[in-house]
């Protein structure tokens, strides 16, 4: 009984003391800053006696830091014979499952290409057949992007351009922008693949950056080299000298289709297309020819082609129209692609642990000392080139790298040279394919193939040897940060960069040269001014008038994605399917009132630098949030967000 009284009195005293402490902590004087130095994160009471020490801010994890691939399984030495056998069996089964999924993944990319050809291939052929429009190099560039996106193959776009040159519809100089556009359009595949990792923000950040680093390199290379080519024609001149330097002869065995031989048995069971139809349409031939191949084997009788064996592919026998068959195949290919990628990512997560993780971190992503730090990048570039030659497609190779980057196996700095190597590798396969061309078209085919090669070599020389000039990595990382916060932005980026912008330029060209150059010149001048102001804002803001040192004077929707994000969230909340892509990035994204908004769009900075006052406000808010979590009712007043 006496013990109960003692315990009761102690509890009462503790409650009284706790109440005094909470009242003291909740007072406004508690958050008076000592200094305005942003490096001092300390707050004390007005009487300079530190009655309360705020909790330390949690260490901010770099979202670009590769995660630790830890192994929580039982060590091998502690397993008995049965469990050792079981583990070996599971590992073998996982490798077989991974090989099968990779095979289906590659086949699904082939189906995706065929589906796009059925849906939009003829339209692409008719677009590129307008030789008058191709007199404008910018229009030729955008047509190259559109056609490659629609047929999902840069080699097909290039071969169409070669056929048009051989038919004297266009000259080599007019075909070069089409090849440049094809180089841009081929990167759409791995951007689509990156969308499959949108459920995890950090994985999506890394995967989307790994995919768009290819886009950024291609666009930056075009922005620099297209004006040079239009002005001086250096690609045409170099490749013309190279082709004339040697007497090139047709090589019947030059074209190798290692990967096609593996995938054809399955893809030919589903659909079989006549790839020559697009070339015929582009050169003004039969516009009604069917892309779905009806006859697989023919023989000549009295100079007449007679069908010996009809194609037994599933879609070829259904009798569906090309557009309907294309839509069906598109649905099948996207479903297969998504399923394979999800299962591949899960398998890689389970396999890349323990010793394998240590090996990967030690050799693939390790930081080496000079000169190895420079040589390892060129080694990665060489590996990317060789692997692309083996699989005969840069899209397949870069699409396979994207999920690996997402789960943190390969860093963005390693992905970049691998992607550049893939760009070189795909031009090598183009050269090999050119050597199999008819002797009448051999020179033009080789010249365009060499244009493709020297275009990519020029881009690498511009944006790789000097670390400072690796702008594609910076831009891709910035895009990754935006998509991690606003995952719907990835769809917007995909539609804008590969469909709407090329389509807008193409439609503008139909209005005539005067309107095209007037509107295009105004847009180009506006973009140059905005980019220049952004650069000065980042580097030397004092050079600008006070009002131009930030974009706060503009309406919010003109310098922030928040208004559009709010609209999309309101619409998306009606559909539970989109809930995974509309959740806020963290607790502070929805609760912060005093914390400044970090979603501003800036072409140079991936994260905002905070002022001293803002830093104190952030810490003060964290303290208030801490008190709320511990039972107090104090709440901060919400202030307006600041956007640069």
UniProtKB/TrEMBL annotation:
It comes from the Eukaryota. The keyword Cell membrane applies. Residues 41-51 have a biased composition (Low complexity). GO terms for molecular function: sodium:phosphate symporter activity. Its main location: membrane. The chain crosses the membrane at residues 88-112, 175-196, 217-235, 323-349, 370-391, 446-466, 486-508, 514-536. Residues 40-63 are annotated as: Disordered. Pfam families: Na_Pi_cotrans. InterPro entries: Na/Pi_transpt. It is found in: Apical cell membrane. Keywords: Cell membrane, Membrane, Transmembrane, Transmembrane helix. NCBIfam families: 2a58 (TIGR01013), Na_Pi_symport (NF037997). This is Sodium-dependent phosphate transport protein 2B-like protein. The lineage of its organism: Eukaryota, Metazoa, Ecdysozoa, Arthropoda, Chelicerata.
